[in-house]
Amino acid sequence: MEDRELETMLNDVTSEKSNRREFLKRAAACGISFSSFGVVGLILPKEMEAKAELVPYDWDKHRWVYLVDVEKCIGCGACARACRTENSVPEGMYRTWIERYEIPAEGETAVDSPGGGEQGFGPGLQGREIPKAFFVPKLCNHCAETPCTQVCPVGASYSTNDGAVLVDQERCIGCGYCVQACPYGSRFINPETHTADKCTWCYHRVSKGLKPACVEICPVGARIFGDRKNPNDPVNEILATQKVHLLQPELLTKPQCYYRGLDMEVR
Amino acid sequence: MHEVTGYLFPNDLHIHWSLMIVLYPYITGLVAGAFLVSSLYHVFGKEEFRPLGRFALATALCFLTVATVPLLNHLGHAERAANIIITPHFTSAMAGFGILYASYFLVLLLEVWFVFRSDIVYRVATTTGVTRWFYATLALGVYDVSPPALELDKRIIRVLAAIGIPMACLLHGYVGFLFGALKANPWWSTPLMPIIFLFSAMVSGIALLVVLYQVVMSLKGWRIEASAIAALARWLWLFLIMTLTLEILEIMTLAYERAEEWEVISHLLTHQLSISFISIQMVLGGLIPFILLAIVVLLDRFMDDRIRNTLTMVASLLLLMQVIAMRWNVVIGGQMFSKSMRGFRETYVPGLFDKEGVVAAVIILVIPFVLLFFFERVLPTFAHLERSRRGSEVGEAE
Asked: Phi then psi for A65, rounded to 5 degrees?
């Protein structure tokens, strides 16, 4: 009897164990599907696409602007991963990336961006006092006076009326002049299409009333996208009332990508 | 992954402008230099270049013919290359390329035709069958080689050669402008760039002629004109002095200003480019030819022909290397550091069999010599020697 009881108890325990294992499995599966939902969710739902097509997009009614809040970025890399998924960016090329700056009390500033910061960052400088460290997300600055469209010999690189700088993949001859002309390293020659490639601010999403993938996914709101022609857009208040900076302003390319809390070490 | 130091923007790891973009300014430079020598005779009547007038012109044409090949091989979409001419975007310095190239090519082709016209007519008269038909096609139905007609040819040649000089300078100087007018890259961005490109073009073109002239004469067993070599050496020395002065001036200015970019460029010159810039461009290809040519030019009166030929030949070979090293240092050097101004690629070795690799580059560089060989077969580039050999009486318009 005792033995029997013991057996039942053991059975219960093992079944409980298996249940627990089952639970953990399900939880993990749930977690994976939930987290992947974050990425999948970026893809435009069918109905929304259909709806968006009914209202034609008027590029004269918008003036897009991008704002990076350096103080908020935690360097998780979700934005760079979302960008790669959303835009099928080939491995080794980057439409956006995150830089880590570590400024020790003494010695040289250390900057790195392992794999574009896409998988986050490992340990940084070891055994040193680092009073200042921060992450800086980078992307195309969509300059208003951009040297990249200036140098394109066939007009494949162009600025849209709403402020985005885009590349016409059907016209680009792949000469690479724009890649050389960009002071920010934002462009590359796509090894699959053999044409110039760059951040589009997810124009395919923006023109359907959505935010760029990187903005959508940022868990801390370090990436902000807004419309200067929409007075109710919060981005306008930030730009009007807070101190913002541009990357390499001395080149007079007039970037449309602003940085809040930028350090002078950042170029 | 490539070996790097410091922090590079992740897209800056790639060298987008490859060996092909090194070759392109090298080839157009050779064209410009060779054309100048031919024009020194045709326009400015420098008699010492008379033996080389036609050969220099043929050389320019053969090299110009392949000038676009490295570019087409480099383009991601070569099939769309014509868009540069069909739908040019004129704010781009590159957009003018098609128009400049095509019009200079036309001028050069016309000049070649006028210069060689009397020989074409002579061949029509002295050959039969397919050969005759071929030359008749080249003659374009014009067979008038009377003295007044040849006199007219001469005048047209002078005009074409005169137009050709600024065009050749534009075609080549504009390549320098492509680099010099990019504010994103401190190693390229200088108004000196087109001028440096132009002067080094003259150096390479003249050096090429020195080498080719001596080789062809030796192969044919003809006498090398001492006056021609002496004159080439003089011009070569002059242009070399100009080139080196400008190249050093550029570095000195950057070093003296000690602006932000000097940190990057000084590192570039002493590490990544230490061999190709300091050893090759400045010492082996700069200082040594300078001394050799100084000897040739300053001691010309006391010089034995063979010594002059040899010294000039050695200097020219070194200079041909110097100029390609300069193109390399500009094109590749400008991509060895990141626009982050914090990091460098350590090395760049082009692949041997890559689409834009070493073998492709060698093939492209050999083609113009093959073309020149066939040109020589079809039309006499050293007409005065051919004629004295066959003793025929053909009027000439050169």
From this structure: -150, 150
Q: ipTM value, please give it.
A: 0.92
Inter-chain CB proximity B92 and A150 less than 8 Å: yes
Predicted TM-score (pTM) of the model is 0.88
Radius of gyration, CA atoms only, chain A: 24
Domain extent listing, chain B: 1-17+207-348, 19-181+351-398
Distance from CA of A34 to the nearest CA of B (A): 30
Torsion of CA A241, A247, A249, A253, to 10 degrees: -110
Q: Which CATH class is domain A59-260?
A: alpha beta
Number of neighbours of residue B81 by Cβ within 10 angstroms: 20
The span from the CA of A172 to the CA of B84, in Å, is 10
Domain layout of chain A by residue ranges: 59-260
| Chain B residue numbers touching A111 (CB-CB < 8 A) | 6-7, 340, 342
Beta strands A244-245; A96-103: pairing state:
unpaired
How does pLDDT run across B159-204, given as a tens digit for each residue? 999 999 999 999 888 899 999 999 999 999 999 999 999 999 999 9
Looking at residue B163, its amino acid is I
